[in-house]
Each structure stands twice: as C-alpha cells, then as structure tokens.
C-alpha cells in the first residue's frame, strides 16, 4: 500500500519504516497499512478509508474490535492492579482460570497461563516429555504451532525450513484433507480410515516408546482450515491411548467460539490430555495464552515441581480481558452467533461465490472459520499461487479485495474468511459482494475447464 496522505498517519508510516523490524518479511519492500482506529468488525486506515475486517487481524478479535465491556475491564484492572509476579494469586487470574475450566472438556480443570500460543505449545510439549520420560513428538505436515525454536520445528508450514536443524524430536505425519488427499481417497470415510492407518504405521516404524506427545490442531488454521472428518479425532485419541502418547490439541486459532463452539474439539468425540490456547481467549486485547491440563498430566506435578514458568504468566491485565471476553460471550450469545452465521450466512454465501467463480476450487469451514482454495484448474486442482510463495495472481486478488474495502486473511493460494464472532448477516452480505469483485481477478488467471 502507498504511504498515507494525511500528515499524522504519514509520520507513523515513516517512523515504522525507519525503526520497526517486521516479522516474516523482507524489510525493504514492505508498505504496511497504517491503522488509525477500529470498532466492531471495522477498521479505518491512515487516510480514513473504512474496511470490513474479515481477517480478525491474525484470526483473534473474536468479540470484535474495541468491545466496550472488555475495554472497561482492562481500564478497571489497570486502576487496581497493573501487574504482579506470577507466584502471587490475583483475582483476575483465578477467575479467568475458573471460566476457562468451565468451558473445557470434562476433567480438564487446571490452567497454566503463558504470554501467547507459541509458548503455550512449548510448555505443553515440556509437560508431555516430563510426564512420559520420552522425547519425540508427532505433528502434521499441514500445521502451524508457533515461531519459537521448538514450535516452528513442530510446524509443517514451509517457514520451518530455514529454521529446522533436525534437533526438535519432531516426526511429521499427513493428516486428513480430502480435497488434496495424500491417500488417494474418494470419500471422507476413506480419508479418515487411511489417515489413521498411516499415522499408526508411522508410529510403529519409528518406535512407539519414543513418543512423548502428538500435537494436532483440532481444526488446522493457517494451513488451510480443514475440519477433520468424523471419527478422525476419536481415532487419534485411541492411538495415543494404545501407545501411551500424550494427546495435545492446539486451539490457539480455533478456540473460544471461532468454529461455533467454545472449543473446536467440542465438535468431535475426543478429549485430549492438554489443550493449548491464546488469541480468542481475550480477543488479543492483551497478550495471553495457556495450557488447559487434564488430571493425568496434573498428577505428574502434584508432588514434584513443574520446571517452567514465565514472568508474565497470568498477567492481571490480560486475565481481566479474558474474564470480560468470556463473560461477554456468554451474556451476548456470541458463540451461538458464530455457529448461526456459519450455518445460515457465511457458509452459504461462500458456496454461492464458488458456483459463480471457477477459480474457487473448494470451500470449507465451520462457524466463522472458512477458507477458499483458489485454483487455476478445477480438474487438476493446480493452486493459484505456489506452496510457500506468492505471485501476481494472488497479490492482485488480495489488492482488489482491499480496494473494495475488505480485509481477509491470505495464505499462499487460499483466502481465509474469518470475521469476528459478532459479525452480522448484513455485514456478511456486504463482504460477499466485495469478495465477489475480488474473485473476478482470480478468475482472470483461470485456464481450466469451466
């Protein structure tokens, strides 16, 4: 994007380019959007242009931007207790833990707080290793678990490649994904059966006694929003039980209403040993993450110290925001709204776009967690842009969406449509019209059968 014309925003832009080092980016080519203010499902750039935010930023503003109840809770907490060392109990952290345990699967009653999702996954892996006395960890190729040294190596994302020194103990497997099946499946039932068979075979060849944990996103997010087929998560649970492997569900992106349920695992007949979370727990207003701990893992540390901690574990401002977020989600039926929107508005709207645009090869999702798989040929399913990269086709498609006033999350050849859980049918209709225009650009690169 070009630098803003308004002088105050222009100074923000210039200072950013002079002093801020951005993540995942070649620094010299960056042209970041200056954001002046936000409200609900909207934000305004440095020139005052309004956008519908169907990215939820990095898929975390689950109650929308600037929700007054969450803002007020942070202000009230700041006036009373801004910070305290994690060794001390404080009201915000205790209540946040209670509320999280209340919406967690049965038997998961304890919460270890972190500063975000990556360190939540770090600590979950550490707990599993200490609990089992084993080291190796199973993770899926189509996955993302964070950007620390450990979690980037557990990720299947291509961003692992320049950071992978082969010392993380990670052993990767193919998860189920019928649209781009690694198992030549023709139905969801076949995909589930073959993916589970593949996983168990891999474990046997690697040596079952080597594995401390299996980490899996309940619904993979950054890698493509691929809800697993019925029976898969229960099958993973059975395999983990058979070989004494700790099952970790990563709900950093999919938790707290995103899929139309409090936890994405609620859609499936399985209870993991550990659940990691962040993002939606307080809509990202103050950094917070954590590990929800089942009784079996908790008992490993009931009589011996857990050798891990963080300076900001359960930070009062972050936990106050979590209390307000979860309470507000209950009071305003926000999780129910996410389910309703996905079923009656967002899902049908995206499927209607797929009927009009040949470049849309696949539509998939739950709640307010959806992806469009863009292709240049529906028969071959050739992606619109290459894995691990970008090109003019996707760049121009995303630019057209922004020009129309819509922000969506983009990863390679996919557009992720992930609005706040508070989104209305009217806002979905407006976004679909904007996306319709943007997909005309993607269609111009389509050269397959129509």
Instruction: Estimate the strand proportion.
Output: 15-25%
How far apart are the first and last residues' alpha carbons, in Å? 33 Å
Structural class determined from secondary elements: alpha/beta
Element-level helix/strand string: HEEEHHHEHEHEHEHEEEHHHEEEHEEH
Summarize the structure in words.
By secondary structure, this protein is an alpha/beta fold. The protein is built from 13 helices and 15 strands. The strands form 2 sheets. Strands 1, 2, 3, 11, 12, 13, 14 and 15 form an 8-stranded mixed sheet that branches. Strand 12 and strand 13 form a beta hairpin. The longest helix has 23 residues.
SSE layout and pairings?
Layout (H helix, E strand, L loop, with lengths): L6 H13 L15 E5 L2 E4 L4 E5 L1 H4 L8 H13 L10 H12 L5 E7 L2 H16 L3 E5 L8 H6 L15 E4 L14 H19 L4 E7 L14 H12 L2 E5 L23 E4 L11 E6 H6 L15 H16 L2 H23 L3 E7 L2 E9 L4 E2 L8 H13 L1 E6 L2 E4 L7 H19 L7
Parallel strand pairs: 3-14, 5-6, 5-7, 7-8, 8-9
Antiparallel strand pairs: 1-2, 2-3, 4-10, 9-10, 11-12, 12-13, 12-15, 14-15
Helix pairs in contact: 3-10, 4-10, 7-8, 11-13, 12-13
Quick rundown:
This protein has 450 residues and is an alpha/beta fold. It has helices spanning 7-19, 56-59, 68-80, 91-102, 117-132, 149-154, 188-206, 232-243, 295-300, 316-331, 334-356, 392-404, 425-443, and strands at 35-39, 42-45, 50-54, 108-114, 136-140, 170-173, 211-217, 246-250, 274-277, 289-294, 360-366, 369-377, 382-383, 406-411, 414-417. It is built from 13 helices and 15 strands.
